[in-house]
Amino acid sequence: ESTNSMWVILVSLLLWRFVTQDHSYAIGGNSEKEHFEKKGKETLSKKTCESCNTYNMMRLCEYLFSFNQKSEYFDWYENALLNHILAQQDESGAKMYFVSLLQGHHRTYEKKYKSWWCCTGTGMENPEKYENNIFFFDGSTLYINLYMPSRLETDGISLEINTDYPYSDKISIAVKHNTEIDSLKLRIPEFSHKAAAIRHGAKEFREIEKGYFTVSNIKGGDTVELTLPMEITEYKSREKDVCALKYGPVTLCAPLGKITDKVSEYSTLGTPIILKPFFETRHEFYTVYFDKK
Q1: pLDDT tens digits for 202-248?
Q2: Selection from 275, 263, 201, 193 nearest residue 232 by Cα
Q3: How many angstroms separate the CA atoms of 174 and 151, rounded?
Q4: With DSSP H G I counted as helix, E B as strand and the rest as coil, what are the percentages for the chain, rounded to 5?
Q5: 4-42: pLDDT as tens digits
Q6: 254 with 291: CB under 8 angstroms?
Q7: Does the pLDDT at position 67 exceed 70?
Q8: DSSP string over 174-187
């Protein structure tokens, strides 16, 4: 990062593509037993998706975006943030080393005073990732890359994002008085490219350029309304006849009962299973990947 040479940027880009395109899982994490597998493999085990790896890939993503503002960087970043980083700790703050994607398995959290993994350290830093990259400035252009309730207060700009995303597809950006924004770019996730819509005052438009809606000449008192319709989509594993399911940016899983229960009671009696966000699943058995046959 200190040199910013073209060689360093190129190598960084190649690494990012190598990991995200050929060695990542449905939740955005990567690696199996701390190693990259042979290209084309996507083994499900108790030791998939080391959390440190995702933390570092997010830092690499930030670095690459600072040179080239491509929406694909934050499409991946959002996937990793919601489905791995948010899922890495439980309600007590306990972290995970690996996030198991073995079918029918569960999460293994650190034990207080008995675990101090590398992923404990980066896990302590992860919560700042929720807000760290919502906004990005490139000269007079303001990018909004992540959608969560937040407020931006800086010289000449004051605005607020109101949303329940990803539980809702509605995002409202309220611009405060004494604010002027020459160009506002809103990232449109790939899953919503065909159906996303934006309204600024009486004007509504759907034209996306390089993964962003661009709204110009924003004044204090304006409101920008963004809609990102979601639907169930299939994540195609690199393994034959295996898939995962997503709803918008959220990776879904099938909860199979609390760890104290018998999984067989949930998996063999034909009882309907309601899918839910993977990041909501904690001390219970689950399945993220499904056999298609």
Answers
A1: 888 888 988 999 999 999 999 999 999 999 999 999 999 999 999 99
A2: 275
A3: 9
A4: 25, 30, 45
A5: 688 889 999 999 999 999 999 999 999 999 999 999 999
A6: no
A7: yes
A8: EEPTT-EEEEEEEE
- The rounded distance, in Å, linking the Cα atoms of 43 and 37 is 8
Q: What is the token pair recorded at 248?
A: 């918008």
Distance in Å from the first CA to the final CA of the chain: 47
pTM of the model: 0.93
Spatial CB neighbours of 214, under 8 Å, sequence gap ≥ 6: 183, 184, 185, 186
Are 14 and 76 contacting, i.e. CB atoms less than 8 angstroms apart?
A: no
- Structure token pair of residue 126: 């992860």
> Residue 201 — pLDDT band, cuts 50, 70, 90?
confident
Buried b / exposed e along 248-270 (16+ C-beta atoms within 10 A)? bbbbbbbbbbeeeeebeebbeee
* DSSP string covering 50-68: BHHHHHHHHHHHHHHHHHS
**Which neighbouring-strand residues pair with 159?**
152, 175
In tens, the pLDDT along 120-135 reads 888 888 887 788 899 9
What is the distance, to the nearest Å, from the Cα of residue 123 to the centroid of all Cα atoms in its chain? 16
Confidence of residue 264 (pLDDT cuts 50, 70, 90): very low
What are the φ/ψ torsions at residue 71 (nearest 5 degrees)? -65, -25
CA 238 – CA 160 distance, rounded (Å): 40
Please tell me the predicted confidence (pLDDT) of residue 206: 80
Q: Strands, DSSP E only, in the chain?
A: 135-138, 141-144, 150-154, 157-163, 170-175, 180-187, 197-200, 203-205, 212-219, 223-227, 232-236, 242-247, 250-258, 276-277, 284-287, 289-291
User: Minimal CA–CA distance to 26: which of 264, 238, 273?
Assistant: 238
